[in-house]
Amino acid sequence: MKRLYIALVLLTAVVAACIFTQRYQHRQTQRMIHTLDRIEQLYRSGNTAEAIAEAEAFAEDYLRISDRISCYIAHSELRESRETAALLPTLLREHGEEELYMEMARLRAQLMHLQQVDDPILQNIL
Q1: Where are the alpha helices (DSSP H) in the chain?
Q2: What is the value of pTM for the model shown?
Q3: What DSSP state is assigned to residue 95?
Q4: Widest CA span of the chain, in angstroms?
Q5: Could you give the count of Cα atoms lying within 13 Å of 48 in the half-sphere of its Cβ?
């Protein structure tokens, strides 16, 4: 009977860890999307200097967060979004508006994809 209790405790711990990591991932990616929206809003309003500062902080923060998330998500899923996040401050400095908006949309799509990578849906389970 002890083995059954130990198995239930271990199963509960694994399920709790899965739920915690998924909620952490969703919370962090949602925060990154909101920050990206703020950077775009600042740039569109003409606050380029503030947008650059925010983008630099975003790039550093995203690198730190993606290091944590990479513990349970494949590195290949994070590689492109890391590159795009690092490129963002440079694009803001160079004033390449078309390319900037394209990269911001790409990064936003990558972040949304990261939210769905680890969701317990049939496609991910199989």
Answers
A1: 2-44, 48-69, 75-94, 97-117, 122-125
A2: 0.80
A3: T
A4: 68
A5: 9
Measured CA distances, 117 to 9, 22, 60, 72, 108 (Å): 27, 10, 22, 11, 14
Sign of CA dihedral 64, 70, 73, 75: positive
CB 44 within 8 A of CB 92: no
CA distance 57 to 107: 15
| Structure confidence by residue, pLDDT tens digits, 104-114 | 999 999 888 88
> Tens digits of per-residue pLDDT, 21-67?
888 888 988 999 999 999 999 998 988 889 899 999 999 998 888 88
Q: So what's the pLDDT on residue 53?
A: 92
Closest Cα to residue 64, out of 40, 44, 80, 85? 85
